[in-house]
Design brief:
The chain is an alpha+beta fold. Helix content is 55%, strand content 15%.
Length: 842
């Protein structure tokens, strides 16, 4: 076929019916924009973390890092004196709440400036540039230096006061200057290391040691040589490894959102099919004429593929631009964690991954071309002689064997459910979901015919005509019903999974949140704590019946080639009520045989491969402590794992008598406001206390949960909207091809309103069938999400709970929208011109 003729035909097609064309472009663009925005936001977060870590590492070859509470500073001397080490810099690192504000935090580094400058000169470049680069200024414990990003967010400049939460009070620092050379380090404050140790209760301890090796020293061999030097829980790793750990923690969440966005994009392919099917129905005689003039089926397929590629390219280009704009706006206004909380301590810099965005755009184009080739397959089966005189017949129905294909796909998915995760991702579960969705699509025709075979409403000719049409679904309508099946399955599955998660979380919170009032030393960060005396002052208040201390630490349970295995150590009083709240298995306290017992979360069990009754070693207070795993608990707060141990055992092992939180039980008849006022009087220096009653704490936790799933809800809604748009477009195509039928019905006495009612019934029937099939498929997919994807991604067990009300509303909304869409889209076809269309039968 002549290329000029191909271009002319394609332009003529794409210029027709611009509204529906715009709808199709919008659907493709939405799918590409969603996938691109999700990927860009997370890539920007990881890029910012990586850039910040590399900026802080400077010329370091490796970093020695320990638990969040730190390790003995004497280790620095042992490391610095090794002959392989050219320079070593001790660091105290903390995340402190900005006192007097909201829950915003600031990363604080305590450094020895004379040692740090050998690895990262930018740490003291600000002092030199302001002309005050002398030892007194650098070592003044009252001074703090801010990165440009921190100064901009906090709106501070040289000479202002920076107040940070420390202990139960606050520490004030004078802003000595801005570290212009640390523009790439993100938001942080730099203070003298002695000031950091004194302010944040870290005397005698360090958070990490940055090490630069002498030329020629092999870093991997040096790390191996440290095995006998480093205490338990302290590991040596390559510099800037923080981004790798952040990527691992957030990977499952990111992949889940990517999957939702790609489902929305795949649903858009059905809309591409519907749009091109409408054009093909109108051009039936044109295609027959081209065939009669010698154009082959392959050339027709290439023509339609070109049209699909043009649609896909335009939609992908628009979607890429919209996704980039949306992700940039989201990063600027809301941060990079998309509500999940993985990157809440880090700012974001817009860092799109060009290769990934190009791949997403190409995927959108490929899906559009796939929808066009689907139409081309039906066009290729047109009977040329019949089509030259008759343009009203629909495309041939799909070939038989769909039931066997659907059954085969469904059975093939079952073995995948037992595959273990790959790199922490539930690849088998995702593959099983994809196969079940494909099986549901293949089963649309057979299931619709089976469900409607025996349903014939008596004395309702309009309904009988409508059901007869839907019973033998035309090709493009069947594809749109399949689009509804895919999007409805997605929404049903996610609704069941999220509802099950929500109810399970509520039950868990109801068990572990048992005190009347919870008191935190600071609104956020890890620098707030209560001293032993402050704990006693609260416990001795007449309004307080009992007070329980809670202490948290992040420890390194193991080190592997893939990175550190960090888990959270929770020290708190343990009793039967607490174990019941954690839903422990077994739910009983172990016998007092002198052993140290701990309870591990499901994530710790899966990631560390520990078992109930097993004796394991935990790195606590710089030594390996043998403990017995007494049971498995549920913990929905930490995907990396948690270990719970008795507060008395923790204090005996560490000598640390501080507490991060207090769980306060009030005496009978004492109101919460009265108790809060009494606690504030007992702790007059604590200006940043955060107090919440049990109901408020549970409510805030559920608000965080809902916020973290807000993006999921938006992706579901968009996928459903795209599917419903496909049905509306399909009914427009079907109505156009049935104009002669409508004319005959008008001659037989049916009024225009009755024909529109028939179309509405057809739309309702198609929507109902798609919703019912999607309901069944979505229920099956939800079980995979709960028991396979969720378990392998986040290591949480959930009970299945069925949101009956929302599911009924969802089905009803789909049916109603399809009915309205079919009626509106068919209104043009039943005008007076439909009567004149009968002349085509001459």
């Amino acid at each position: 076929m002549n290329p000029g003729l191909v271009g002319l035909l394609a332009r003529g097609t794409l210029a027709a019916n611009r509204f529906r064309l715009a709808l199709t472009l919008l659907s493709i663009a939405l799918g590409v924009a969603l996938a691109g925005a999700v990927h860009t936001v997370h890539n920007s977060a990881l890029e910012e973390i990586d850039r910040s870590a590399r900026a802080l590492a400077g010329a370091a070859d490796l970093e020695i890092r320990g638990p969040r509470s730190g390790f003995d500073e004497q280790l620095f001397i042992a490391i610095a004196q090794r002959p392989e080490v050219l320079a070593a810099s001790p660091v105290v690192e903390a995340v402190a709440a900005v006192s007097g504000g909201d829950e915003s935090t600031l990363r604080v580094l305590g450094i020895d400036p004379f040692r740090a400058v050998r690895l990262q000169p930018a740490f003291v470049a600000g002092a030199a540039s302001t002309g005050v680069g002398n030892a007194a200024t650098l070592l003044d414990m009252r001074n703090a230096w801010l990165s440009p990003a921190a100064a901009a967010r906090l709106r501070l400049r040289e000479g202002d006061t920076l107040r940070l939460s420390a202990g139960s009070g606050a520490q004030e620092f004078s802003v000595a200057g801005i570290l212009r050379g640390m523009a790439a380090s993100g938001e942080l404050a730099v203070i003298d290391i002695a000031a950091a140790q004194a302010a944040f209760g870290r005397r005698g301890s360090l958070s990490r040691i940055d090490v630069r090796l002498r030329p020629g020293v092999d870093a991997a061999r040096f790390r191996a040589s440290l095995a006998g030097v480093l205490p338990p829980g302290v590991v040596a790793s390559p510099p800037a490894s923080l981004s790798g750990r952040a990527a691992g923690i957030s990977r499952a969440y990111r992949v889940n959102l990517d999957a939702l966005a790609l489902v929305a994009l795949a649903t858009g392919a059905f809309l591409v099919f519907s749009t091109l099917a409408l054009q093909a129905a109108r051009r039936r005689q044109e295609f027959a004429l081209l065939r009669a003039l010698g154009v082959t089926r392959r050339e027709l397929a290439l023509l339609l593929a070109l049209e699909g590629a043009i649609l896909g390219t335009l939609g992908a280009a628009i979607g890429t631009a919209v996704g980039a704009f949306a992700s940039r706006a989201l990063i600027t206004r809301a941060g990079t964690d998309l509500g999940a909380g993985y990157f809440s301590d880090h700012g974001g810099v817009f860092a799109p991954d060009v290769a990934a965005l190009a791949a997403i755009a190409l995927l959108g184009i490929a899906m559009s071309v796939g929808g066009a080739l689907w139409v081309a397959r039906a066009v290729g089966r047109i009977a040329v002689a019949e089509a030259l005189r008759d343009r009203t017949a629909d495309f041939p129905t799909t070939a038989g064997g769909a039931s066997g294909v659907a059954l085969g796909l469904a059975l093939a998915a079952i073995p995948l459910l037992w595959l273990p995760s790959i790199a922490g991702l539930p690849i088998g579960g995702y593959a099983a979901i994809a196969l079940w969705l494909a099986a549901a699509v293949a089963a649309v025709g057979p299931l619709c015919r089976m469900l409607l075979a025996r349903f014939a409403p008596p004395n309702a000719p309009i309904a009988m005509l409508a059901l007869a049409q839907v019973r033998h679904l035309p090709g493009h309508l069947a594809a749109s019903v399949a689009g509804i099946v895919v999007s409805a399955s997605l929404c049903v599955a996610m609704a069941i999974m999220v509802f099950s998660f929500r109810v399970s979380l509520e039950d868990w919170l109801g068990g572990i949140v048992g005190a009347d009032l919870y008191v935190r030393a600071s609104p956020a960060g890890d620098t707030g704590f209560f001293s032993e005396q402050e704990q006693k002052d609260v416990a001795q208040l007449p309004e307080v019946a009992a007070s329980e201390a809670l202490r948290y630490d992040r420890i390194v349970a193991f080190e592997s080639a893939s990175g550190e295995g960090a888990i959270t150590l929770v020290a708190r009083p343990i009793n039967a009520r607490i174990l019941a709240g954690y839903q422990a298995e077994p739910p009983t306290l172990p016998p007092g045989n002198g052993e140290l017992h701990v309870w591990i979360s499901e994530a710790a069990r899966d990631l560390q491969h520990w078992k109930t009754g097993e004796r394991v070693s935990l790195p606590i207070a710089g030594r390996a402590v043998p403990v017995r795993v007494a049971g498995i608990i549920r913990d929905y707060a930490r995907t990396w794992g948690a270990v719970v141990m008795s507060l008395d055992d923790y204090r005996r092992l560490t000598g640390d008598l501080r507490a991060n939180d207090l769980a306060v039980h009030l005496r009978p008849g004492v109101a919460t406001p009265r108790a809060e006022a009494a606690i504030r009087r007992a702790l007059p220096a604590a200006h940043d206390l955060v107090m919440e009653d049990s109901a408020g704490l549970r409510r805030r936790s559920m608000e965080i949960f809902d916020r973290s799933f807000a993006v999921t809800y938006a992706l579901e809604a968009i996928a459903i909207a795209i599917g419903l748009a496909g049905v509306t477009s399909s009914f427009a195509a079907l109505a156009w091809s049935r104009r002669r039928e409508f004319g005959v019905l008008r001659f037989l006495g049916l009024r225009r309103g009755e024909i529109l009612a028939m179309l509405a019934l057809e739309g309702a029937a198609a929507g109902g069938l798609g919703a019912l099939i999607g309901l069944g498929c979505g229920a099956a997919v939800s079980l995979v999400l709960i028991h396979v994807v969720n378990r392998q991604s986040f290591h949480w067990s959930l009970e299945v709970h069925w949101p009956i009300g929302p599911l009924v509303v969802l089905v009803a909304a789909i049916v109603a929208t399809c009915a309205i869409g079919a009626r509106v889209s068919g209104a043009f076809a039943v005008r007076r011109e439909a009567v004149l269309a009968v002349k085509d039968d001459a």
